[in-house]
Amino acid sequence: MTQLSVHSPVGDLTISEEDGKIVSLDWGWSPIQKENEILLKTKILLDQYFDGENPTFDIPLDPQGTEFQKNVWNKMLAIPYGEVLTYGEISTHLNSHARAVGMACGQNPIPIIIPCHRVIGKNGKLTGFSGGEGIATKQYLLDLEEVDKNLKLPF
Question: Which domains does the chain show, CATH number per domain?
């Protein structure tokens, strides 16, 4: 596995690649790094994203998970920049349950790129986010994308 760490407004992030595909994006700084084409391209796309642009993350992804998790992650990839879906809406598409979708979101190994921050609770409630500072990070990413300001924090 090859890794590259980057600074971002939501903290240091480490991008990991295997066999030419991105496999994870984690909070924190890796002590062992090596640049390659896919990692550098991902860094550029993340920089554009954090600059308020809407880059197309046209990079190969290989998140490891169950078939159900991969189905949820694919639904998240289809959520356009600046828009949100609820856990319930995704669960309806997958003939599942909102709680199961939430669990899959929490296991997303490539947050931001697979935009789990675009999945919210019913009635616009912001719930769970496992990256950075949790819901505050989710709110930051949604604000960056200028998502409707009427979303409700859980507290």
Answer: 2-50 (no CATH), 67-144 (1.10.10.10)
